[in-house]
Amino acid sequence: AVSVYATQAEASVKVAGRIAALIRDKQEKGKKAVLGLATGVTPIGVYNELVRLHKEEGLSFKNVITFNLDEYYPMKPTAAQSYVTFMNENLFNHIDIDRENINIPDGTLKQEDVAAFCLKYEQKITGLGGLDLQILGIGRTGHIGFNEPGSAPNSGTRLVTLDDLTRSDASRDFGGKENVPTKAITMGVGTIFKAREIILMAWSQKKAPIIKKAIEGEISGEVPATYLQLSDHVEFILDEGAASELT
Ligand code: F6R
């Protein structure tokens, strides 16, 4: 399904509302809500609205368990560019989530320990009954998480090499492309697919060409987001700019 909103602000409030409804529904049932989260500029409006719902409307995150999609590798959690820092500043520092319920791939592991960590990350998600909802952005390479062109549809959490375009797009955050890590740990396409509900968001005309490919293009590992066409529980939530090239 594709939904187009006039502005990203309006769309972000809708997505946050869906997340809040899921959390409250689980609370009523005495259950945990298991959320898959993304970083980058795309979900910032959603996180702002979730923080507002917490502060002004009493939304509690005590029953929420989160799994972030990815982290650069190597990356210290305290670094300004880490996804740990991003999540703390944009969401976790402002809500009442229990720190032990936050999961983000560990960018400090020794290379030989990464595979075991990734397997445990998968098992932890599965052990909790799977992700209730995964939110996604999309990179200009067509990546979801950091599943770059060439990723397999059944891929799991693993160490990957970032595409050159992805590193260029990140260069501003790092003060130059040469400072952007060449690798990342990411949930796989298969991990994302298992979520009971998936919401991919994209804003602005800058994303219009890749959104056209993702939604209307041939399904191919060359544009990993096209794999989402195979799922019946995906919703693409766009603003008018991002939707502007759709037929
Ligand atoms: C972030 C992630 C990436 C981003 C994508 C878009 O956790 O997994 O796939 O969603 O690179 O980034 P922005 O939102 O900055 O355009």
UniProtKB/TrEMBL annotation:
Residue ranges occupied by any Glucosamine/galactosamine-6-phosphate isomerase domain in the UniProt entry: 8-229
Highest taxon of source: Bacteria
Name the UniProt record assigns to this protein: Glucosamine-6-phosphate deaminase
Residues of the full protein shown: 16 to 262 of 640
